[in-house]
């Protein structure tokens, strides 16, 4: 069925489109009888306002673009819930675009957001992204941007990230306090800044205890963790394990079960969103990276940027918020 427009209502009632528009808005200049006729016709014909046209006139779409590297069961759902909780209260909607960890796709998504007339963009960068030059297209279009979680060194856009140095150091201290002397630390993609910052902090803290042996493993996925540990766990006797994320923890947990090493005196410490360890093994210790908090904080900063009177919200560079 064809969508009924204001023009259709105006033609049927033999009045102007401006009169129909004002009658639907209950404008005081329109008589009660005309308002009644217009509203009755609109209801009878199932007239639905064109939100995009209204937004175009108001120069605000009330829509946010959310760009993420991938849709994953780890961490992302809690971030989305946090973002949604803020945007819903503000009367905003958002759509999610997955870059599939492709820099080229990420650039395409930025153009999609521009063409969709979004009021702002929340973006977590791909593993392939090395700088923020492509985000300057959004700045040119006066579209506020907040980078969250995965970022790159840059001094143009506000970003919200976790305090990876502090969190990794706390995990190392947990293992040291448990008197672990032979530790396997499992990190993610070694090319990522988040991996390197957690590695440096964890390694520096372990080095303060000369008696501790540290073995480091880099794995890009839970499956890769399982593959590497199938061999490694047969050749070494570790008494402590560190997983830098829920994804690496999932692979570690599966391997420990396979080797019948769960429910032993081996200590496992992870950086986690907080939900997964509770269901894997209650003895696992973890430092929480609260995805919901990150989502609410990033969305709140974006709302603040959108409300600023100056369109170019990126004039105050190098604002990085650590959670």
From TrEMBL:
The keyword Phosphoprotein does not apply. SMART domains: HTH_LACI. GO terms for molecular function: DNA binding. Residues 4-58 form the HTH lacI-type domain. The keyword Magnesium does not apply. Keywords: DNA-binding, Transcription, Transcription regulation. It comes from the Bacteria. Pfam families: LacI, Peripla_BP_1. PANTHER family: HTH-TYPE TRANSCRIPTIONAL REGULATOR GALS, LACI-RELATED TRANSCRIPTIONAL REPRESSOR. This is LacI family DNA-binding transcriptional regulator.
